[in-house]
Amino acid sequence: MISQLLKKIIDDNNRFVEKHNDGYFSPHMTSQHPQITLVSCSDSRVQPHVLLDDPIDQIFTVENIGNQITSAQGSVDYGVLHLHTPILLVLGHSDCGDIKAFMKGYDGEPEAIKNEIDTLKGAVLPFDNKGSFEEEVLGNVQRNVDYQVDIAAKRYEILIDKGSLTVIGAIYDFLNTFARGHGRVVITNINGIKEPERMRDMPFIKGMRDQISIARLV
Ligand SMILES: [Zn+2]
User: Does the pTM exceed 0.90?
Assistant: First the structure.
């Protein structure tokens, strides 16, 4: 099993080396130039190439369970304050295990895992049996994205006011709950603004109103 997996890594990396010449690497050999700081979940189903075909040197990726800012504040600061990415994207996703763990109870988890679930406390609601568990999970995914965007909007308020940073909250919807297609990235929050019409009216959105998926769960 391990040798098969290692063989796959070697084969795939060989293909990567063959496909990319010096010219590909030379612009980023000694410095990076990302345009997006991404705060995403460690979940293996969520990867930066759902956003850009080639995320190398484009996306400064910060991943942890539950796509949380406070779990990795230094890394997020590095992307925003040192690398000056114009976008900070908080990306939640369908079927998030961290959110499900919070809702189901996580007392039995080891201390370090518990600590990273604890920080969802202010963000999401416990399961209240009103809707289906799956519906409430997605509602909490959206709440968590809102919560993280609020943290960022406060922390980087000066940059947002200057127009040098936009904080975008979105959900990678591989379950197609928003009915925009499996795998669609649906924007749910921009700089703390949650009303879809207000988001669509933002100057940088206007030219692509019909192409962009902006929606909220009711
Ligand atoms: Zn997750």
Answer: yes
